[in-house]
Amino acid sequence: MSKLNPDGMAAQKLVVLGGGESGVGAALLGQAKGFDVFVSDKGPLLDNYRAVLRDAGIPFEEGHHTEARILQADEVVKSPGIPEKVPLVQQLKAKGIPVISEIELAARYTRAKLIGITGSNGKTTTTLLIYHLLKTAGLNVGLAGNIGDSFARQVIDDTFDYYVLELSSFQLDDMYQTRLHTAILLNITPDHLDRYEYNFQHYVNSKFRILQNMQPQDNFIYFRENPAIADELAKRSPDVNRLPVSLEQAVNPGGYLQNGRLIAGYGEQAFNLDMAELPLKGPHNAINMLSAILAAQSVGVNSEAIAEGLGTFKNAAHRLEPTGTVNGVQFINDSKATNVDSVFYALASMEVPTIWIAGGLDKGNDYSQLDRLVRQKVKALICLGKDNRKLTEYFTGIVPLVYETQDMKDAVAKGLAWAQPGDVVLLSPACASFDLFRNYEDRGNQFKEAVQRLVDSR
């Protein structure tokens, strides 16, 4: 028997594929809005999500997909982790059943202004920073998307005036009507190409979906020196209020770095602060901070509140995270750096001789863009992976000392042995973690534990 909505009509069938944070949130929102909801996950659900669905009386299955039931849906919310090319999704599309993201569903039911952030690198830092700036300024703001609590679950009560949303390309791919009032595009470099037929332009197109539905008065913040962004903007010329970020020249309106100072102007707002006074370091964080400053200015946060927020911000773990100092040697955990572009910015941030720990599952890396920085900054390379051939072959002759290991404790000990007081041992892998670790967090945590053992033994 079909479920009826409050008007006595048959409720629309909403199927949610994936029972994680976003899927369960979408299911709860769908139920709250009168949908006949069913959740299907090909794997096992976590205990807490299973309990939430049971308490809400939402039917679900785990360990398999009942295709006949799923193909009866009026609409499907798909987890961003499920590729579009899987047969079930292809069957849904062949039947003309809309397949959307949790973000798309939730955006229908909120009155809040939406600030969205995407990019190949720096999304989480910039998202957290914008949220922190708005919250410390006293704005009523929520945090969601690819970070934090489900956007859909928060929208059930819809108590916030603003949402700051970290958006992956996978989430953007299943967004169609969502309008962002402020969109930030930090950079586009090759990543996740296995989901895009190994065609970089397809990935670029995905990132630029952040602009769809924006209106001329909406704000588009972007890094103007990223080649892929610059090339695409020349082709598209979107009708939005452009606020470029530059490390090379003054821009007005926009934000730029000049003589070590962050300078940003939007409307009558003007911001000027020495970056040396702030906890985030390096050129990549200048881009992140300028983007966040412009986003905060776009919703009326004043310069004094922005400066206060920048000074009190603490970044997420595994992103150039100071981890400990032993015998005058500083250890830095940048395990989130899973591609070459991230390592480029990490090495550019180093101001002292560096022992670099890299390696893992190579994603087709081109290390040539690191040549100049490695020659300038890196005194030794420790390769931490099951197969280090590509790293060792490339950097032997460029780096004076190269060492291979498959053990994190050994890598940290070797880093300390090779370092002099004042040096840095930097874990910035340039590779995925899945050869030796569960994920990048596991890799970073093992690094921190190994460093802490050295600290405790002194």
TrEMBL record:
Its main location: cytoplasm. One of its GO terms (molecular function) is ligase activity. InterPro entries: Mur-like_cat_sf, Mur_ligase_C, Mur_ligase_C_dom_sf, Mur_ligase_cen, MurD. Residues 318-431 form the Mur ligase C-terminal domain. It catalyses: UDP-N-acetyl-alpha-D-muramoyl-L-alanine + D-glutamate + ATP = UDP-N-acetyl-alpha-D-muramoyl-L-alanyl-D-glutamate + ADP + phosphate + H(+). ATP binds at G119, S120, N121, G122, K123, T124, T125. The keyword Cytoplasm applies. Its EC number is 6.3.2.9. Keywords: ATP-binding, Cell cycle, Cell division, Cell shape, Cell wall biogenesis/degradation, Cytoplasm, Ligase, Nucleotide-binding, Peptidoglycan synthesis. It is an enzyme of class 6 (ligase). It comes from the Bacteria. Pathway: Cell wall biogenesis; peptidoglycan biosynthesis. Residues 117-296 form the Mur ligase central domain. It is found in: Cytoplasm. Belongs to the MurCDEF family. Cell wall formation. Catalyzes the addition of glutamate to the nucleotide precursor UDP-N-acetylmuramoyl-L-alanine (UMA). This is UDP-N-acetylmuramoylalanine--D-glutamate ligase. It comes from Nibrella viscosa. The gene is murD.
